[in-house]
Amino acid sequence: MITDSVHTLAATKEKLAAAASGVGRDVRDVTLIAVSKTFVAEDIRPVLEAGHRHFGENRVQEAFGKWPGLRQEYPDVTLHLIGPLQSNKAREAVELFDVIHTVDRPKIARALAKEMERQGKRPQLFIQVNTGEEEQKAGMFPGDVAGLLALCRDKLGLEISGLMCIPPVDEEPAIHFAFLAKLANELGLSGLSMGMSGDFETAVQLGATHVRVGSAIFGERD
Ligand SMILES: *Cc1c(COP(=O)(O)O)cnc(C)c1O
Question: Which of 39, 56, 76, 106 is most buried when burial is the number of CB atoms within 10 A of its CB?
């Protein structure tokens, strides 16, 4: 049976390709991360069967409940952690994830460095930026990103692939995407993790290398 998520995945890929070609970009330079948080293995399997291999989860514990099993069936999956990380979860995060998008303070960077050394595993890392400088929101303020980057590179031996942001809900996302792209460019970083179901085409137009799309593929979450 072909499920809805297989159709919505195909539709999302078409929109992504159109957005990329509209600005002269190669769609192969944009990684579509299917965000499967809150969905169970049975919901995810059709998307895997359709050949998709990049998935995002926002909770380490929840991801451990479904991905080790799915990975045995689909060993070439790339798993992205897109939710906030506590330093006491660094061990599990390094064990399970291939890409961590949410490095957002020195304490996390240190905990990850220690675990990466211990496990001999090197997930790709993004620094999360609080572009709207919102209270209570994860991410480094833009003015502090250079300092965290220097700590990662010079003191901890961590390579940083790029920047990630989640724009404030009540603001025009394009402004935040353009800002993140400019900041990454100034810092010499090429990766840009930005854009969700409602705005991934805009993000691609503004240079996203990774878009994180959940509900447009899997449907609304409870
Ligand atoms: C849930 C989530 C997404 C996906 O959101 P949708 O609007 O369902 O596409 C993207 N990024 C992060 C950080 C998320 O937590």
Answer: 56
